[in-house]
């Protein structure tokens, strides 16, 4: 059961932000309506989601990174949401399941997921060799910074949903077989 319920009477600023979410996603997932208790937190979440559109990382890779972070942090809500979004980006179901464990059949994507998982596990204190490996896979410094930003932003949403115990309103994806962050 949710520990923080979705806000059914949001203030004017939150209502405006939720209208934008509905326009963008075709609905207002429980995470956003829960965040509507705080227009500043909701505004941060909306800005984060919309800000990634400028990334040189494609939408599919961004969803795969989000799944790796959800798997590492044990967030069932985000695992479910990003699996649904990954399917919308034409990522095969088996690949999405592997992404929760920072695994990919594509070698370049694998390098990004490995780096993202190291960022989560080391709380950002990665080794020089970790940066060298992701660069060697073909990622630019801008893309590396986007990976770190995606890790940080998705950690925010993972923590919000874990604290609130947000009710999953996507097809449920179990994280019981995912190795958690150290």
- Please give the CATH class of the largest domain: Mainly Alpha
* Major sheet attributes: none
Percentage of β-strand residues:
under 5%
Low-confidence stretches: none
**Structural domain tally:** 2
Q: What structural class do the secondary elements suggest?
A: mainly alpha
Termini separation: 27 Å
- Rounded Rg: 16 Å
Helix count equals: 9
Strand and helix map with partners:
Elements (H helix, E strand, L loop, with lengths): L11 H14 L4 H6 L3 H13 L7 H15 L2 H13 L4 H7 L7 H15 L6 H9 L4 H24 L18
Q: How does this structure look, described?
A:
There is one protein chain. The protein is mostly helical and 182 residues long. It folds into 2 domains: 12-53, no CATH class; 56-164, AhpD-like. It is built from 9 helices and no strands.
Task: Tell me briefly what this model is.
This protein is mainly alpha-helical and 182 residues long. The chain contains nine helices and no strands.
Question: Keywords for this structure?
Answer:
182 residues, mainly alpha, AhpD-like, 2 domains, globular
